Amino acid sequence: MMKAFGIPNWVLATFILVFLLGLFLGARLPLFRRPTGDGKDARRSLHYIRGMYAMLTGDVENSIRHLTKVVEVSTEPVEVYLALGNLYRQRGQIDRAIRVHQSLLTRASLSEEERVLALNALGMDFKTGGLMDRAVKTFRDALALHPRDPDALAFLVKLSEDLGEWGEAYEYAVRLQKVRHQKDPKTLSFLLAQKAQRLAESGLHLRAAWQLHRALRLYPENTTATIFLARLYLKVNKADRALKTVERALRETPHKSFMLLSLLREIYAQRQDLGGYLDTLHRLGHEQGQKRALLQELQEFLDLKRREPAAAVTRHLVRHFGRSRLVQKTLWDLSRRGAVDPSLVKEWADALAGSEQMMDAYVCISCGYKTLEILHRCPNCKEWNSFVDGEG
Ligand SMILES: [Zn+2]
User: Between the N and C ends of the chain, which has fewer C-beta atoms within 10 Å?
Assistant: First the structure.
């Protein structure tokens, strides 16, 4: 292995890295430009280098040990206080983290940039400690100093989402996307849909509908917005408009039809249009291969005691979705109750011989997360509206 002066290469590389970090911090925090030589000396100490190095490698204990020595000698380096507070937070000592960052904020000599960094760090402390109101207030203080600070904005988007303050989450997300020169209409659309849901719950139906139209203009594939809007129309007995809304979604995203099936049933019930309902299920099931639409169609035919069409749907299910556990369970229940023809059951059993069963989960197309219930947002990757009716 190559060595220079008997020092292994990785040690040299590490010191270069730490040196660069120092330059970076120096550039970010305008400390070197100050006349005081105090902080400069602190940054030359071995404890400073070792503490920063330990922090880079994730060695929390040694980092705290060394950086504590640095601030015993000099109270000047702001980045050491920021780092120490963050390290305490990582170690779960929230009170200490808060004290360190608050003490930093009492300094009159802090530059505006440093104050924003310290406020964001303190906000994180409060958030980690579960003090949400104080976290929000602290991030807002940071924003008051720097209205375009992307960190404070990003924290406020997330916090507002966690608190269910969807209107505020939307406002902050708009500002954040502007600052980052980012266009993410999908996220904005879903935040609007959530906001509308809250408005509707408070009885503000007109305002809710208005927000949902905005959400759908931003991102027409927003199935959540479609469902909320159609339900609003149903509530005021406008089944035709509800149907239009849902039909549009079925055209845009036929693979999301499984989210709309029960809504379709309610809409057609209000219209007293059983034929239209069965036609729609038939179209979704037979033309677009939607398994859950077929299962619902089968259920409707059985409820109507229409044995012939029920047998036809059953045959179709067996042929195309025989390996699905959900289909098998349904057919098994039906055959036990004598609701399907025994010859069909035999046909089905033959088709199944030797084949594997398939899980009927909803799968997040963004990260692969599987769930048995329909979710609007993936708990794993936080993607909106990302589930499809999957098998695997
Ligand atoms: Zn996901």
Answer: N
